[in-house]
Amino acid sequence: MNSSIIAVFVLFLPFSLFGNWLSFRGDNGNGIIKEDLSPDIGLESNSSWEAKLPGRGLSSPIVVEDLVFLTASSGPKQETLHVIAFDIKSGKKAWERKFKATGRTVCHEKTCVAAPTMVSDGKVVVAQFSSNDVFCLDLKGNLKWLRGLTYDYPNAANGLGMSSSPVIAKGVLVAQVENDAESFTAGLNLKNGTTLWKKDRPRGANWTSPTVLGRGNKQQVALQSMKGIAVIDPETGKDQWLYEDGASTIPSSTVSGNTILVPSKGLTALQARGDGKSHTQLWRDNKLGPGTASPTLSGDKFYVLNKANVLTCAETKSGKIIWRTRMKGPMSGSPVSTKDHLFVFNEEGLGQVVQLGGEEGKTIRSIELNETILCSPAVSEGALYIRSDNTLWKLSD
Amino acid sequence: MKISQNPLILLTFGSLVLCQLSGQEQELLNALTKVGSKGTGNEQAVRAWPAVKKLNASSIPKLLEAMNQANDLGDNWIRSAISEIMDREGSGFPEDKILSFLKNHGNTGSSRKLAFEIIREKKPDLAKDLTPKFIDDREPSLRRLAVGDLLESARKTDESKRAKALYKKALSKGREVDQIKEARDALEKTGEKIDLQALMGFLVKWDTIGPFDNTDRKGFGKEYPPESKIDLQATYQGKNEKAKWSAFSTPDPFGMLDVNLQYGEIKEVLAYAHTTFEADSAQPAQFRIGSKNAWKLWLNGELLFARDEYHRGKTRVDQFIIDGQLKKGTNVILVKVCQNEQTQSWTKQWEFCLRVTDFSGTALHSVNSTK
Lengths: 397, 371
Prior knowledge:
The structure holds two protein chains of two kinds. By secondary structure, chain A is mostly beta strands. Helices cover about 5% and strands about 40% of the residues of chain A. Chain A has two helices and 32 strands. Chain A has helices spanning about 5-10, 150; strands at about 50, 60-65, 65-75, 80-85, 95-100, 120, 125-130, 135-140, 145-150, 165-170, 170-175, 185-190, 195-200, 210-215, 220-225, 230, 240-245, 255, 260, 265-270, 280-285, 295-300, 300-305, 310-315, 320-325, 335, 340-345, 350-355, 360-370, 380, 385, 390-395. In chain A, β22 (about 295-300) and β23 form a beta hairpin. The longest helix of chain A is centred in the first third of the chain and has 9 residues, at about 5-10. Chain A is globular, with a radius of gyration of 19 Å. In chain B, the strands form three sheets. A six-stranded antiparallel beta sheet of chain B has the order 5-2-7-12-9-10, with no helix packed on it. A five-stranded antiparallel beta sheet of chain B has the order 1-11-8-13-6. In chain B, α4 (about 60-65) packs antiparallel against α7 (about 110-120). Chain B is globular. The chains are: A mainly beta, B alpha+beta. The interface of A and B includes residues 75 and 181 of A.
């Protein structure tokens, strides 16, 4: 391959190959770490760091280029909303923007206003909060646009707090604002924040996040609710196909190619058909129901943490269970995994590294951070990023 | 109807400020102050935004003044502009003008709070000196800081007399429930009796009628007779038997009206609570309601807000703050409070609390109130 071809190839590589981690549970929302990550990561490495954070926050970090982004909420009513960028090498704050919440900030004590994870297309970052304020900024912190979705629709709120993380598909920000009262999902133009469509959704508290299926112009978005799954066209919001057998309102679905693992009646695997308008149910197993964490993929296997903190490894194609192992819980954050290792943090701040690939799962290492951790990690260029309310850590080897 | 987030009424003199600007800057502020709900004005704001790069720290007071005429969305746009300018300008900022802006109570609470935050970031010692002066401020977030200082001093002192005096002052000056609670709890430990109902302005004397049917949660949207006419002598068909109005009051310090005490712990029902509020003048007010049940609130026959959500967390004081307009004389307040079908132990509450305040959170009392 000559150099010009290489240059063109590199130019059009997806951002993810440069070490970005663009959304909740990674670029494809399935917890897959595309690069290698050593099981020996920890605080001891010279390239590891920790940074102090304001207020509260359980959103997961994301990584774009040389910055790690996250949100926080502070003030007596968590009325101050923070979007913060840190330099991935030094851990120094690159910039911070503070806004005031225009929607409701009442939450259950365990969660907080900064619960949804940010999302990026590699050029801009978007932060959504439990108050349903949405901010789009460029990578230097310049505001591109903002919306106040509860300001617009005052009954769009959940007394326990909202946590759905938005996704970007076909240039549209898809924000699920689903609750008992005014329940909807909106498609916002990523360029200027205007509403492209607004879709009524089942009324009921819903803390799940949408997931993106397909690539490029064939992208679709799967919206999960207690009714099941609605796969929509992100440009119009119109339903493409429905799965109406019910689904969980806490753990989210996970996409593996054209297969969606849905937390429904345990776990149900749906395969999207090539026409983009229909699906086939591959299998269902009521023993594979996740607790709070969403399923994670590695190779042709997936991993589910149940309410009893048992980690199950099973085949994505068939649902066949390979092994089970008990982890130290309780767990709120979802795991992430390379082809060889799975990384997960429990609520007590204990990181656990599980060796994959064998006939049984074995925890080979622990990392003690000793602060409450409720989020999922981000991974970029051989380092793992995880946060508590007060601290953002970079863990390298 | 407006769910209140910004406690002070927006002022209009910002237009004078905009006249002093020209070209792109004026276009920018015009665009930012005209951003509306549901995305209106967003495209204009995005187009005008590059002008921020031409502004420097001397523009910050003008941006703060423009905030006076912005809604909460425009407020956030301007907040971000100021933040970008401050990042660019480093340590320089027009201290005197921002201080003067902070001291001008004609500016909105939100813009004054931001002025204070700028001072706190740049001159923390000055901010510390300023804080006690906010003790009577109409902006709750500034007042809270001064009350916080009082509570901190009370916690730290070893002199019980001084602590008591500080807690008493915090109690009388505090406007937010957590600070009031802390002062109340500390004072009650010393034997003081505190009438929180009166201090916070809870409405505690009601007439209620019910239970009406709320099977399948359908009663929330159904218009039962009390919604069209209040007749305290009338009798209506309730869920199982005739329903009639009866007096019901609560001794709860936070004004919680436990409707279960009136009708028993029953499910799929709703009730109405009626009271009057005598105002000696027409005035804007905030109606601060807390309920974990679905509810509707009317003032003088106008629906102020309705919330169709059950048992998502506990009932909290000031859970919903709703702007309304009291008229001079008798104001009629009607609350519809609904109970659903859930049977878990944490779903048995059927309750609400309501108080009326001004925009600073200071209790307004009905002139006929015995409290």
